[in-house]
Specification:
The chain is α/β, with parallel strands linked by helices. It has one domain: 3-Layer(aba) Sandwich (Rossmann fold), CATH 3.40.50. 31% of the residues lie in helices and 18% in strands. It has helices spanning 2-21, 56-70, 98-108, 151-156, 161-170, 200-204, 226-229; strands spanning 35-41, 78-82, 117-123, 126-129, 132-135, 159-160, 175-181, 217-222. The strands form 2 sheets. Strands 2-1-3-7-8 form a 5-stranded parallel β-sheet, with helices on both faces. Strands 4-5-6 form a 3-stranded antiparallel β-sheet. A hairpin with a 2-residue loop joins strand 4 and strand 5. The longest helix is centred in the first third of the chain and has 20 residues, at 2-21.
Length: 230
């Protein structure tokens, strides 16, 4: 995780140089009050057919600390959605469920202005379903193994990268950072011990016309090798 955090810090500081090299008039990072982040860590799943993970919640909490202390973000502009420990009395609105994730993104969208920076991080399971990359939220449902389960149900109850792409396209942000620490193509194949890289569909998912959408600096970081993620 330390290498991952260090890489992200380099990416954030590199946005300035990227904008300058591309001739953008927005040659610096926006002020701290105009930097927004949504950090999602899913390690416990309601569907017991989806293996749990160790680390995503801690990862996003550490990322928040790095963004505040090293990257000039304001804590109030960072929303963290993480899996909660069983038995703990916690705020259900801060669990990484489908409804909470879509609500947070929907509430954030009208707040973003031209020139703002938006960072979205997801740490958890990812899977490619018939060419459509999706991210598994806490209440993704499959009702069986991925080979014998209800694939359509899994797609309907998970976050598609197409939806995330649409959110980015519809915002007025000038600088965008996407961090996907989703090391599983098939989460039923292991509990996270093996290297299981994401498919090329994940890389293609964010291939849209960034210039016409007003995006002047853009980074998408895929953490796919298990040895680099932890």
């Amino acid at each position: 995780m330390r290498l991952f955090l260090f890489a992200i810090f380099l990416l954030l500081t590199g946005l300035v140089g990227f904008a300058q090299n591309t001739g953008s008039s927005n040659s610096s990072l926006p002020p701290p009050s105009r930097r927004f982040a949504v950090l999602i860590g899913v390690e416990e799943y309601d569907d017991h057919n989806i293996p749990s993970l160790t680390g995503p919640s801690k990862d996003v909490e550490q990322m928040k600390e790095v963004l505040v202390k090293k990257a000039g973000f304001v804590a109030d502009n960072i929303t963290v959605l993480t899996s909660q420990k069983p038995g703990n009395k916690t705020d259900k609105s801060r669990e990484p469920t489908y409804a909470n994730i879509t609500e947070v993104l929907g509430d954030l969208q009208p707040l973003i202005q031209k020139g703002d920076l938006v960072l979205i991080m997801f740490s958890g399971h990812g899977i490619d379903v018939n060419g459509e990359p999706i991210l598994l939220d806490q209440d993704s449902r499959n009702r069986g193994s991925l080979n014998n389960g209800n694939i359509n149900l899994l797609k309907r109850t998970s976050i598609s990268l197409a939806d995330l792409n649409a959110f980015i396209s519809d915002t007025k942000a000038s600088q965008v950072v996407i961090l996907l620490d989703a090391c599983r193509n098939d989460p039923s194949s292991s509990k996270g011990a093996d290297s299981n890289p994401l498919t090329s569909n994940y890389e293609k998912a964010f291939d849209f016309d960034k210039v016409n959408n007003g995006i002047q600096a853009y980074f998408c970081y895929f953490c796919w090798a298990q040895s680099l993620c932890k």
